[in-house]
Structure formats: structure tokens, C-alpha cells
Design the sequence.
């Protein structure tokens, strides 16, 4: 399996345990953890390192492909595809450092990941976004995801249920 995916502006590379301090610093920004369902507030370096250490085994089972978005040698975000069982479609998830918002980076990164997965034979993808994060919804719409439904989900970063749009893409 590949170690990196490149685009015109950056590289998507596998995360390393030594990325844990940078990941932790970034996800502890409330602008990130409040907009991502599965990131707790006040995440520790140990929690980040544990999460990263699970990636190789999940990658080997084709259950997760998580990449750091690296621009000019700096980790600025994460984009990944995960699933619990091989017969399920991959769920696309992502976050980006606020200083990099509004530049089309996530659309490009997630698009590159989806293309990489499609080249490996994957065809169905799901994702979603919190209702009060329309910028994330625009990323998914640009990637040809369509709204499937709206329902509340528990957001770890907020400690409460929040309205969430589920989206899907075929092909």
C-alpha cells in the first residue's frame, strides 16, 4: 500500500507516532473539536499516540486509511477513510487547522483520498457534518456527496447531542 498521495499543493502521508504532539495541539483548538463528532476536548498526547498506533493494523485489514495533510513540511490536518466491517462503505472524515480554512485544501485532500480508494475498487462512501458547520457540507457537496438524512448525534467535543447531516456518494 502507498505511503503517500500527492496533489499539486501538498502530500497526504501516513501518520507517525511522533506526530502525536502536533495532532494534539491542533485538535485541542475548540474550532476543531467542537466540529468533529469523535474528538474529545482536552485530548492528551498519549491519547493521540494511542489512536495513531492503531492505524497500521487497521490499514492491513483495509479498515482504515488515515493520512496527515502536510503542506510545506507542516502537518495542517487529517483526512481519512474508516469502516468497521469490510462490507461497509468507507466513512470519510477530516479536520483542518483553522489557519488553512477557506483555501480549498480539504476539498482537494478528500478528493485525492477518494480517488485513491476508487483506484483500489471502492465505490461507495459516506460522510456527514454538523448542521452548524456548513463549510464542511460544502466540501462534501463539491465531492458529489448527497444528503441522506438529518438526525442528532453525540459530539464528544461539546458533550451533547447536535444536529448532523448524513451524506453518501456512490461511484
Sequence:
Amino acid at each position: 500500500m502507498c505511503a503517500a498521495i500527492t496533489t499539486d499543493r501538498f502530500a497526504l502521508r501516513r501518520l507517525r507516532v511522533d506526530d502525536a504532539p502536533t495532532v494534539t495541539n491542533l485538535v485541542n483548538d475548540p474550532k476543531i473539536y467542537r466540529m468533529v463528532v469523535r474528538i474529545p476536548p482536552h485530548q492528551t498526547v498519549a491519547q493521540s499516540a494511542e489512536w495513531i498506533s492503531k492505524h497500521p493494523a487497521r490499514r492491513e485489514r483495509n479498515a482504515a486509511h488515515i493520512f496527515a495533510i502536510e503542506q510545506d513540511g507542516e502537518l495542517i490536518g487529517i483526512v481519512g477513510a474508516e469502516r468497521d466491517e469490510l462490507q461497509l462503505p468507507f466513512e470519510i472524515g477530516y479536520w483542518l487547522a483553522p489557519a488553512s480554512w477557506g483555501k480549498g485544501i480539504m476539498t482537494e485532500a478528500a478528493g485525492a483520498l477518494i480517488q485513491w480508494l476508487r483506484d483500489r475498487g471502492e465505490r461507495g462512501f459516506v460522510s456527514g457534518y454538523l448542521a452548524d458547520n456548513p463549510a464542511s457540507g460544502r466540501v462534501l457537496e463539491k465531492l458529489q456527496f448527497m444528503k441522506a438524512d438529518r438526525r442528532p448525534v453525540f459530539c464528544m467535543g461539546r458533550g451533547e447531542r447536535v444536529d448532523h447531516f448524513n451524506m453518501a456518494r456512490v461511484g
